[in-house]
Amino acid sequence: MRIPRVSPKNLTGFLDKVVGLGKEFVGELTNSRSLIQAGEAQQDKGTEKLKALRSQIEADSHQAAAEVHEARQKVAAGAK
Question: What is the pLDDT of residue 1?
Fold first, then answer.
């Protein structure tokens, strides 16, 4: 089983969610509506980055499967 590498670039979505939650929490404590909104927006950005990462991983998986099928097709064509 291959362990996937995690690029620091891919962690930004998670970090955005954590930092955004922190901003929202501090905003709630200080009753700062602008900080709450900034935190919510940063969390939303993090969510979208994570969704994009999941989609990219799925696309890479489909690409790898297509390459396997293509290789099998070439082998089958050469066996005739």
Answer: 55
